[in-house]
Fold this protein.
Amino acid sequence: MKTFGGPVLFLDRSDINTDEIIPSKYLGETDKKVIKPYLLEDLKINGFNPQTDVAGKCVIITRDNFGCGAEKPQAAVALTVNSIYTVVSAGIAKNFRPAMQSNDILSIEMDRKSLADMFHTFGDKDTECKVVINDDGTAKVKLYAGSLSKSYPFQIGETDSPILEKENWGGYTTTNLKY
């Protein structure tokens, strides 16, 4: 059994594009640590403040088509430099998936009903995520907020299996589970 996770950043919107993940004006930076404070700087969601809401988060839970728009590998780099190694959504944009894979970001595809329940139940709470990969191949996302907890099963994608096999994968090293 493998477990990993950490604090959750809920982004209640579909079609978050690569320009919103990292603005184009930072693409010329050669030191990836320089782009760290600009993750999601241009993302507009009611009540979301990138200056205060991103720090310390390890998991993003969002709606559908995350990473759409122009092909920008730096958007995935901006996630990892901020210690975000897991994205839970109804789907990752086709052109963004290779950038996520090459930066060892696990994409967990969840059905829309489960995502709706996650947002309804946990979206307005300080929430921790624990992803559990069992030896028999079953997997689930467990969310915790205070005494409230709920599990959501998912299937591991073929392209994500190699990420989970890496002993030094960032998702394991950034784990800060409190339960």
